[in-house]
Structure formats: structure tokens, C-alpha cells
Amino acid sequence: MVFSTSVPAAFKYNGNRRFARTIVMATGQLDPLLLHRLAAKYVWWKGADEAAVMPERVIAQTMNMGDYDDVLALSEQLGDDRLRRVLQHAEIGQFNERSWAYWHYRLGMAKPGVLPPLPKRRLG
């Protein structure tokens, strides 16, 4: 997979080597440039091109470990419905307890004090 090095109109470069959002539009689709950047940062055990082939994993890793700017960019671009689907189909070990609780409350998927359990391995 080849990614363009040009910056989409929705992004501008700032001095901190980060891309700041200038247009907010939840499309449900992840821009290839953002996907590649997040894949390189949060799926470090694979090459960015290889990791970008599985965007749901990149999204889950960013939801679990992402810094504020990355989570904000992801949320603005994908919208809550797509993030809910990623959370609903999470694999074992993709989320720690803190992130699991945060995203369930943030996305309105849990009531205070009532969280679904983390995905568990089932034997048998």
C-alpha cells in the first residue's frame, strides 16, 4: 500500500510536527495519511504499511493508548458510531481496564457503575 506524502486540505502543519485539524467532519472513514501515522505510532511491532491493512486494530490501539491529539483526530474523523463498533468487536487484550471504562462512558455505552466485562478468552 502506498501513501501520499501530501497533506490533505483538512490538515495543516504546525511547529510541533503534529497535524492540527482545521475542518471537523465525521465521515466514518479514516484518512490514509492519519491511518498510516497512527499505525506507525501505536502498532509499533509491525511496519506502518502492514499495520494499516487492518484499520480496526489501529483504531483500537489508538483508543487504548492514544494521546489526546490522536484520539481527538480519530474521534472527529470517524464519529462515535464507528468507535462504538470497534469497542463492541474488541478482541481479547486490545483494551486495558481504564480505556475500556473511559470509552464505554464516553460513547454512552454504559451507565455509571455498570460496565460490561473486558473480552475474555473462553476455553472449551
Structure in a nutshell:
The chain is mainly alpha-helical and 124 residues long. The chain has helices at residues 32-42, 48-51, 55-65, 68-78, 80-88, 97-106, and strands at 11-13, 19-21.
Structure description:
The protein is mostly helical and 124 residues long. The chain has helices at residues 32-42, 48-51, 55-65, 68-78, 80-88, 97-106; strands at residues 11-13, 19-21. It is globular. The relative contact order is 0.13.
Features:
124 residues; mainly alpha; two-stranded antiparallel ribbon; 5% strand
Name the helix and strand elements from N-terminus to C-terminus, one letter apiece: EEHHHHHH
Task: Report the uncertain regions.
Answer: 1-25
| Beta-strand percentage range | under 5%
Number of helices: 6
The general outline is globular
Overall number of strands: 2
| Biggest sheet details | 2 strands, antiparallel
**What would you call the quaternary organization?**
single chain
Strand order of the largest sheet: 1-2
Supply the helix-strand structural class: mainly alpha
- What gap, in angstroms, lies between the N and C termini? 39 Å
The whole-number mean of residue pLDDT values reads 83
State the share of residues found in helices, binned by percent.
40-55%
Global Rg: 15 Å
Helix and strand layout, with pairings?
Elements lengths: L10 E3 L5 E3 L10 H11 L5 H4 L3 H11 L2 H11 L1 H9 L8 H10 L18
Helix pairs in contact: 1-3
